[in-house]
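Quick illustration, no need to memorize.
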Amino acid sequence: MTFPTTPPRQPILPVDDPTEAWRRIRSYQVFASPPIRTGRGGVDRPSSPCTRIVCISDTHGYHRSIPIPPCDILIHGGDFSNYGEPDMIADVSEYFSELRQNGTVKDEIICIAGNHELTFEPERYDKVWRRFKRPKQDEKYDAESARKALTNCTYLEDESLTLQGIQLYGSPWQPEFYGWAYNAPRSDILSKWERIPSDTDVLITHGPPLGRGDVTKGNRVGCVSLMKEVQSRVKPRLHVFGHIHEGRGVTHDGTTMYVNASNVSHNYTRQHPGIVVDLPHDTDMPARLVEPECRLDSDEIIAWLRHEGFLGMVTRFAELEDRLTGSDIVDGSHDKLCCRLLIHRDEEAKAELKQAMTKLWLKSFH
């Protein structure tokens, strides 16, 4: 399979002005359709061995609400807390343990910090903690306790890891952003990215590179220096990040798949599922986005709803003149399905539909 590639030579760019930098570079950038495979049991995996990766980021305490299908590796791109609270981090760690014990994650959980993990950067925390609202108390959190609370995962901070023959590298840094943790001036941040080994296959950074899932309030805020290192030198097959909640999604430049895996919306009111990627063991093959697949017809969906105990939905689905299939549910939005089922004002029914959609979505990766 052949993909167009982004030219390695780029114009000289103003690293302190990402919007202007993007204006100059946009015409050189490639946005190819991401390679895709369906998630139905990974039926073609034996002939093309791969590692299944689920990408999450920016869970902000909602980690237990994020649907995560079975995978070999779970990657968390940072912001697993709000202020670096030790008790929230301890619950994240317990959750990681549960994912291992119930078989959701087969091999490894990899985690980096984000700008909200203030206690993970003690020097910054000591200077800024009074500026941030405390959810329960006015005292400082204990930075040492917070970092020690993160267990049951491999934590990377400007470090590499080799796993299943895959070279991974994780870094929490991002350009200066309202004085949070792991901020660096745009003019100096290149020194952080120069540490990334050139043979990195999976790159995990908290912040996005310029032009990939980096728009907030109509402006580009991605890192110019990171984009240049990724596209001209490192060229990983997969780059996972978060930070900009509105930028959630997947793009591809012909070489690298960029995944903004943010799990909460801009206002923290909606939780999105993990993004699933298959990384072939053959390093000449690109990373592939895995999409759910449900082939249940309308009658089979009603039977499934009854079997799973979603009895309120059985009646709603059966009354529809234009019946819903499994693909309608897995690929549809909750809001649109609520309107179609005439339950947009029924909170109990909306919650039941959400549970049914999540369970069917997870089933579609088995």
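The chain has two domains: 18-291, 298-363.
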